[in-house]
Every structure is written in C-alpha cells, then in structure tokens.
Design brief:
13 helices, hpI Integrase, Chain A, 5% strand, 2 domains, 47% helix, two-stranded antiparallel ribbon, mainly alpha
Length: 320
C-alpha cells in the first residue's frame, strides 16, 4: 500500500513503496522531480497541470514498464478529451512531453550519481531500456501571439455589454490573464501608489502594475458598491462568444489582449526587454525578444496611461 504525503495539491506526491525498492510509478517519479529538482523554480507552477494530467492517465504504471504506446495513448486522450479531460491544444501536449523528458533525463542523472533521496536509492532505480519519448513526434503549435488592433478593440467594445467592457478594459490596460483578473479584489488596489499589488499566477512574481484612468474608475466603483471582486466573470465565456458573433471580431480574450499590452510596454520602454520584464512582473531573466516581439514596434493600442512614468527606459538592453 502506497503511503502519501499530505500536501496542498491533493496528495499527488506519494512516497515510494518500500516493498518495491527499485521501482517507481510515473506518479512517484514526478513527485521526486517536483520535490528535488523543480522545487522553487518558476517552471514548477506551469508544469503542475501537466503533472496532474500524467498522473490521471499513467500514474499507476511503473516507469521501467512505461512504453511509447503508453505515451501515445496519453497524448490521444489529452488531444481528444478522454475521460476526465477537456481537449487541449498542441502546446499543452508539447509541455506534457517536455515534462516527461525532463523527468527521464533527471532520473538518469540521479541513477548515474547514485543519489539517495527520501530514502530511495536511485542507483538501483529500474528505467526503460530506451527513452519512451525519443521518437514521439511533437505536435506543431501555431503562433499564439496576435495583437489586437485599435479598430478591432473599438468594434469589440461597441458590441460588448457593460460588464464585458469593464473586463476588456482591465485585460487591455493591465496585461493580466483571465484567471488573474478573476481573483482581483478591491483590497489589491493601493491608493497611495495608484497601482494594483498582486502576485502573477504563472511565475509567482510579486509586484505592482499601474492602473489607467478607466481601470481606476472601475476599481472605485467596486469599492463603493462593496463588491467582493473587482470584476464579474459570471458566464464570461458565453458572453465572449456572443460578442464575437455580434461584432465579427474574433480574438482570444485573455491571451491576445495580454500580447497587445506587452507590445505597448515594449514600445514605451524603447524595446528595452529588461525594463519590459519588470513592468510585466516576469521573473526569468532569459526571457527575451522572441517572447514579446510580434508587431515590429507599431503602436497597436491606445496608450497605457502612467506606465512610462513608472517604468522608464534604462539599464542594459537585451540582445535581439
């Protein structure tokens, strides 16, 4: 019987079974990876959903018995929306594969160095004779970044409800994702600095984002009305679909508005990527032009008020 550690993520990190001292299931191997390699790294947060997906489909399989067909079965279930899954795109599949390749390579290194972690001797760890992911074709992901032009945004606002207008303004003027917007509370607004003090959902980075005039008006309205959250996202997806149909404008609500914001930040910082990273609360210093550059420096949206006085150009530029 496997013993499980009581954790905040619903016991997804079980200890190894002492009765089987040289084998780990896929779930146990990923548990070791997250405890002893990814702990404290920004990549642990986005990889967590991929770990849960692997645990659902293959967590019970001993890793030395894991085969290429097992990996293909997982990919098929994820792509087509198998039991317990909604269908996901190629980028999620690529991240699933990336996580397992990382687990394989790290376990191989631990085995070579004969590490003993949490009482488990990786020198004895039984691994597949071949890497199960070596010949699996990675699905091609279409470019995800598409900025929204001012005309598109104006047409969108013209056909949006008052509630969706507020949500859209906030997404446009802050560069926050939908899940981050959903969590915003009136107490997150710092009147002294005229900023939102928050923690980014993906990177865990804590910082402040200046607010525009229209965002400030929405925040103060939420405070006056005593609302629990600044924005209302009830039936949000349905409302977005209806607005797409009425306006004839189609874009990914959170992702593309966020990309538009990022490009405006770059323009205002003179393409200084380090300054842009600070403004966007991005943590990884390796992030560079490829992550943000999509519009060749054109001004694609109304000005973000107050950003330039808080995040001025300066410091060392990233190499393009």
């Amino acid at each position: 019987m496997l013993q499980s550690r009581q954790t905040h993520d619903q016991q997804l990190i079980p200890f190894f079974d002492p009765a089987v001292p040289d084998r780990l299931t896929v779930e146990q191997l990923l548990g070791f990876l997250f405890r002893h390699h990814l702990a404290g790294k920004p990549s642990a947060r986005p990889f967590n959903s991929n770990r849960k997906a692997w645990c659902k489909t293959s967590g019970h399989i001993y890793y030395d018995a894991f085969t290429e067909p097992d990996a293909i079965r997982h990919i098929s279930q994820r792509s087509n929306g198998g039991p317990g899954f909604g269908p996901v795109g190629p980028q999620s599949i690529r991240h699933d594969i990336k996580l397992m390749v990382l687990a394989h390579n790290i376990a191989k290194r631990w085995k070579r160095r004969r590490y003993v972690l949490d009482g488990f001797d990786f020198g004895r760890f039984r691994m597949p004779e071949e890497n199960p992911f070596e010949e699996i074709e990675r699905p091609k992901a279409k470019p995800r970044k598409r900025p929204v032009t001012p005309n598109q945004f104006s047409l969108w606002i013209e056909h949006a409800s008052e509630r969706l207008k507020r949500n859209s303004y906030f997404a446009m003027d802050t560069g926050l994702s939908t899940c981050e917007l959903e969590r915003l509370r009136p107490r997150d607004y710092n009147a002294a600095t005229d900023c939102l003090d928050l923690q980014r959902g993906k990177t865990g980075e804590v910082g402040s984002i200046p607010v525009s005039d229209r965002c400030r008006a929405i925040i103060l309205e939420a405070i006056r009305e005593g609302r629990q959250f600044i924005l209302d996202f009830t039936n949000h997806d349905k409302e977005v679909e209806e607005t797409r149909r009425r306006s004839g404008v189609y874009f990914w609500f959170g992702r593309d508005l966020r990309t538009t914001y990022y490009n405006e930040i770059l323009r205002r910082t003179g393409r200084n990527y380090r300054a842009a990273q600070r403004a966007m609360l991005h943590k990884d210093p390796r992030t560079g032009p490829m992550h943000y550059e999509v519009d060749d420096g054109q001004d694609l949206r109304p000005a973000i008020q107050g950003v330039e006085k808080t995040f001025s150009p300066g410091g060392e530029r990233c190499a393009a």
